[in-house]
Amino acid sequence: MRLPILLALALLSGVCLSVQSQKPASSVKQQLFTVSPKSHQVDQDQLSPEGKEIRLAAAAVKQIALEKILVDEHLFSSVPKESRQRLKDYAIRLATVESAPSACFAPDTPLEIVRAHHQVEQSIDRALSTAGLPARQLDSRWTSTATDGAGQNIQGLPVTLRWSIVPDGTPISGGFGEPAAPSNLRARLAAIYGGTTTGLASAQPWFPLFQEGFNNIAANTGLKFVYEPNDDAIGITSGNAVTTQGVINVRGDIRISGHNIDGNSNILAYAYYPRFGGDIVFDTADNFFSVTSNNSIRFINVLEHEIGHSLGLDHVCPINQTKLMEPFVNTNFRGSQFDDIYSHQQNYGDSLEFHNASRNNDTSVNAAPLVVVANTLFSKEWLSIDSGIDTDFFLLPATANQLLTVRVIPSDPVGQGGSYLEGPQNPDGSCSGGTLFNPTNQNDLILDVLSANGTTVIASATVQPAGITEQISSFRFPGTGNFFIRVRGGAAASVAQLYRLEVFLGDAVQIDLASTRLDAESNSGQNQSPDPGETIRFGITLVNRGSLPASNLRATLAGPSGTRMFSSMANYGNLAVGASAEGLFTFAIPSRLVPGESANFTLNVLDDNGFSAALPFPISIGTKPGSLILQDFDFQGTVPSGWSQSVVGAGAAWAISTTVANSPNNSAFAPSVAAVGDAFLVSPTVTVR
């Protein structure tokens, strides 16, 4: 189901399946159920005076409706005699117990019984609706757990839930109209799989099946499940969530039990929504679980389906064997499917939200760390923002000049394409045909890369509409350190958007100009400076500051108009990371230039690994090249080697900035200050001739 359970619904979107179901008679096995609360349960002491009046008025209205039902001879004469008392008990339960379950039937149940029970439900529903109080409301999520405490009612917030298996003999009330009887789940499991009815549950041969069911859901959501080995055997009773809530070292939040519900066939299990305890009851008299083929896929799928109800999910339609939360058990797949995971993630977030001591990755401080191996694609399927205001931060360490390609791809069900049919059960329990739901365009995704401060955007992808992949390609990191990938919504939509995150961090060559020198000159004066019209041989040293060795590095020199090139190309060969090499270039300075003028030359560099760059450098005519200082500030640190800085008064220290630069990637920057002060940046000594 694509939305979590909504508190605003007046009627439970059903746990009953009518006889008009398309399910073939041979597939009547089995319908899964969840208990429906009759109204929003609040302790009487917590109600306002107005609330108490509404509660009393509703109780009175329900009593009147019940009295009319009990004297309706036509209603009771329509059902077989053996079913009349059960129908009366069901009507009394609906009218007097706030968390009473709705009665549910298999498709082969006689039509008159289904209609009679439905008439009882509708009579009380109509009475309550005229009193201004909805008959059924659905809980959305866990709001309090043994581990996290209260205050958990935040969409998308992960929680930790403890689960326990009750000892045999634990009292269970008739949550679905069945007689109250103690749990005999362990005895039933021992009969199927072996083991004992006492002792540690975790030591029994069937225990890994329970572990698998909880692990399957945790692997794709922000939920963390912890097995609670203790259970104090306090009774499992409809609506007793307050008295039997989970307590560490006492009992789990979700308690699993079983007894005879309706014998073989029909109901396999039922579960309570989170507000009513989240407990699960299996039908231990059903032979359905005796078939253990395919590693007990029957048991696993029923268990995981019921855990879905315990987490707040309702049934979803249509019945087409694509979703675990469909009303009928299905063995065409194992465990939760896309639609089920979508709902869980809107309620509890995705699997990377829960990391270290954090339960969210909504800020750079709580960013989820990514383990990305250079030159290897990292891919994580089924992450999500739970709404348009949710933001996911991911921590990504990188080294200077590595190339980043990152994509956020809206998710859809594997093998189903984009849209699929999805909808609720009808009020009478039959399955709706659903409507087309496109999970790829529920929210417009925006992709950013942030600097080490976690706020400055250094790359972004925002142009694609909802449903289309956003991508940042071949972004070159300006330095070494921790950077951040941020995924956020482009609109204030209240629904989740699942996505796949792909990150490729490639090692890259980065060639910079390290130094130049005047190797030879043609003038007889040999003044060690380039003069107008003079032929010179220049040595240019290149350094590989990247993270990948340069292969077959070569360079071509280009000069201003009038430059005559004699040797404009040099091959630097293979240049290891951190290594440098010199190339020699011979050319004649244009005679039109005058001493003191600057001639702008460009060295075009490329290698076999795809690196290419145009490296500019000026030559000052009539000036000794040794006096030229080349500094582009492309490094990590405070100031370059050989440079110094000082601050006077309120001046702010110089820093390296990636925001604005004359040439990529960095520049030196001194921030503005409010008071008077000076900030000095001093270069190495320059010889003036």
What does this structure look like?
The chain is of the alpha+beta class. 17% of the residues lie in helices and 28% in strands. The protein contains 8 helices and 31 strands. The strands form 9 sheets. It has a 6-stranded mixed β-sheet, covered by helices on one side. A 5-stranded mixed β-sheet has the order 9-11-18-15-16, with no helix packed on it. α1 (49-70) runs antiparallel to α3. The radius of gyration is 36 Å and the shape is elongated. The N and C termini lie far apart (81 Å). Mean pLDDT is 81; it is low at 1-51, 100-109 and 129-139.
What percent of the residues sit in helical stretches (DSSP H or I)?
10-25%
Distance between the termini: 81 Å
Strand content: 25-35%
Would you count the extended β strands for me?
31
